[in-house]
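User: I'm curious whether this sequence folds into something compact or stays loose and floppy. Could you predict its structure so I can see for myself?
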Amino acid sequence: MEHISFGSVESLHNKVKVAYRYPEPEQMFFAKPKLHGTNASIVFKAGEVYAQSRKNVLTLENDNAGFARWVSELPIDTTNVDAGDSDDSDEVTWILYGEWAGQGIQKNDAVTKIGKKAFFPICLRCIYNGDRPDYVEHEEHDLKKTISDFMGLEDHPDIHIIPKVGKLSICLNGDVDHLTQVETYVNKMVESFETVDPYIKEEFGVEGVGEGVVFYPDTNDWDTYKNLMFKAKTEAHRVNKSKSAASAKVEVSPDVADFVDRFATIQRFEQAMTELNTGFDMKAMGQFLKWVNTDIIKESKDELEESELEWKECAREITNVSRGWFMNNAKRIT
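Assistant: Here's the prediction. I'll summarize afterward.
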């Protein structure tokens, strides 16, 4: 079984910086709520169905918050997972990407109070074993039809397709005035999630804070979809101490101490512990430190460059802060 990644969702300024790579002068984007759960997906390939987390293929022995077990119990007819479709003899791999969220997976947010665990699909990616480019299906009605017709799971009580909550035409190569308008729109939307997640309130009648939103380009080309999507989180969920949810410009750190304070945050440490699922075992501290450093260097490449800082100097201090947080928590538990 092969792991097929959804990819990383970066920030607005990351997309603006590399906008020259994408010749389209303007692109329609639509916003969907970002749920505080764990990245999850279902793969349909060559007659088999299996579950994934963000970085691993899941099994009943190596599960993530019970997602693999849930997938194994779905009444999916694998005979529908054939080698292709009526118009193409090429083998097709389908990946239904989404978020596994709800009771007991994370804490504090509205979605954690819905009284159950549920799968929230975001999009369906189709990979063809040929020259055809990967295709993505993201419209709510198309996803619903696929889940019903292909998976045979019409109106499943634990599957809730994440809806659109807004749309905006964005020119990532736009001038300062245009990008300022984009920032204002995105930040205002994220602000509404600071007090209540409007989607969870409407869908489940539960009130609580949300995590933020993700903006996806309105396209069926997977590479464009993956490369242009960007996230904007509420203040409580930002793994770095940025001044706003969305900014078209990179925030510069004047020195190493400021950079470490911005990126070596409790939110990031907690995310690492959730993904690693090792607990505060001292034998697992090396994995934790590696995860934190890898995550920060991946996310902060633009900030490092603009701030003219050396990663080695930053990494040393990040490791010290991360180790101290891990050891303090380990001591509290023992």
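Summary: The chain has two domains: 10-237, 250-334. The chain has a mean pLDDT of 92.
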